[in-house]
Amino acid sequence: MRLGFLAFRNMVSKPLNLLLSLLLLVLSVFLVTFVLQLSKQLSGQLDKNIAPFDMVVGAKGSPLQLVLSSVLHIDVPTGNIKLEEAEFLTKNPMVELAIPVSYGDNYKGYRILGTTHEYLDKYEATLLEGELYSESFEVVVGSIIAQKLQLKVGDTFTSSHGLASIGVESHEDHPYVVKGLLKPTGTVVDRLLISNLESVWEAHEHGEEHGEEHEEEHEHDIEDEHDHEGDDDHDEAHDHNGHDDHDHEDEHAGEEHDHEDREVTSFLVKFKNPLAMVQLPRFINENTNMQAALPGFEVQRLLGLLGSGIKTINGIALAILLVSGLSIFISLLKTIRERRQELALLRIYGLGTAQLLWVVFLEGLLLTLSGFFLGWLLGRIGIWITSLVTEASYGYNLQMTGFDATEIAFLGVALLITLVATLLASISIFKLNISKTLSDA
Amino acid sequence: MIQTDALQFTYENGSEFSFPDVHLKSGEHLLILGPSGVGKTTLLHLLAGLLPVSSGTISVAGTDFQTLKRRDMDRFRGSHIGLIFQQYHFIRSLSVYQNLVLRQSFPKKALDKARIKELASRLGLSEVLHKKVTQLSQGQQQRLSIALGLIHKPDVVFADEPTSNLDDANCTTVIELLKEEAKICQSSLVIITHDHRVKSHFKNQLTL
């Protein structure tokens, strides 16, 4: 008979003890692996989404909100900025690329983002089928949306005003046409409908021509900063436009009759030169009516806030792990006391002290391993459920992965605690007096 | 088979025991008689290697106990000695069958299922082989205890008061059973008892 089998039988012969030790262990491992995976995947996804851009320029307000809305597409925008005012960015020698993005409408809760083709290039989004948009009211569809809404090339839909899908006017006279479907990128692009900027403007203009019902909606969602920009700092904006970008007006004047009124939600900027990181945001924040936010910095700040929460949970999990180690220790100690005669009997049967230790250790090991794997499995199920929730409300889905290094290290810690617990519990085995134990009965 | 010389044992509390020399040939049986408290169980545990001698020598199956280390003593006991206790000792988390397998398994012996089934059927345990040991009746526990003392074909079987809880009929049955099994295994039988009913069954006797 293998000693492992004996250890297993011993373990399951006390179901209540087993349940208590196992529950504590499972709870601790669940907490650690779940939180670990969650924070790791969250920061991984955030990093991937902000990687293409170094700076975002938008209306004044909270920089975190600007990053969340314009780069991660999960919050409402801080407001709009004048296209004209921000276009100097595209001419700046330190800037590699500045892409305007504009929001206005949604389709069934998914945002329609007006931007240039360069936006897709930066996220390395390529077409699965169809072609890119070239005219107004043509869109390409991110992979998650295409799958969720069963959109195909050639489908048409009407957008709803604002960013939320509920109870909002729809622009029925300007239907969008699906021109292409995008391959999955694992980034925000997967849950965006992307059109050109003109689509957003034209849908807007149309909306503004309509009655008062719309007006309310506009003020709330898109143009809440309109007045502020237009009136308060108009002069300042013109000033800097004048000296920064001399040929700007010549180039664009007359291209569109109301160019000066064109607004975008923000500009996404990639720097050519790391020095720009220091100079440009400060310049924009001090000299213009707009604000510049650094996605990397804001995301780090956000994760810093999450980090303290994660540390707390890890601390709790570690405390539970210690209690679970204590529970295993007490359970083994009790087992050894109750089984003194059986252990003495095993010595009669030819097992040495080392083998007795091994049986007890195996019992602890089995308990730890099964607790660890159960807890780990529960953690992954937790990730899966969380993924369903975050995908429904934020469009973020989490990946199911195998063991990672930290989890293996955690297993090591759990095993070490078991080893110590077993050895401490087993001291009496070394001093076992078989003659006395067996005749005392 | 068993050879002792000037055996003495002192307990920690100071009580001292001196034992007469024991000489037992292979296949011979020995009945050790005496009232309670004269050290019968102590002698049995010394002979079975459960207690280290204070002075004197013991040799069982040609092996001098003094030459054995603790671990070697465990191994020697495992393969050469069978023990039947007054109180029954089993591994409670295992079934009857698993208890017998466990007794056969150490040190390094091949599993002999046929032997287990055969012995179980002779001792009337076939029906309960896969029951838990805690579910056995008193009589079944007695017989399992005997089976566990013999399953590994030891050279010597030591039995401590095997008949003390039994009525006359069962006493005779158990003694017959022990002698019969010892014969099949070619084992020597050493029984300690204060039960005079056993006397008539053994001619080789030692009174302490």
UniProtKB/TrEMBL annotation, chain A:
Classification via Pfam families: FtsX (PF02687), MacB_PCD (PF12704)
Spans traversing the lipid bilayer: 316-336, 356-378, 408-430
Zinc-finger listed as a keyword: no
Keyword annotations of the record: Cell membrane, Membrane, Transmembrane, Transmembrane helix
Region Disordered, annotated ranges: 203-263
Ranges of residues in domain ABC3 transporter permease C-terminal: 316-434
Cell compartment(s), UniProt: Cell membrane
Main subcellular location of this protein, as a coarse class: membrane
The organism's place on the tree of life at top rank: Bacteria
Keyword Cell division: no
Domain MacB-like periplasmic core: 19-188
Membrane topology: Multi-pass membrane protein
Protein name per its UniProtKB record: FtsX-like permease family protein
From TrEMBL, chain B:
SUPFAM superfamilies: P-loop containing nucleoside triphosphate hydrolases (SSF52540)
One term of GO molecular function: ATP binding
Keywords: ATP-binding, Nucleotide-binding
Stored PROSITE patterns: ABC_TRANSPORTER_1, ABC_TRANSPORTER_2
Pfam families in the record: ABC_tran (PF00005)
ABC transporter domain mapped to chain residues: 2-208
Protein name: ATP-binding cassette domain-containing protein
Source organism phylogeny: Bacteria, Pseudomonadati, Bacteroidota, Flavobacteriia, Flavobacteriales
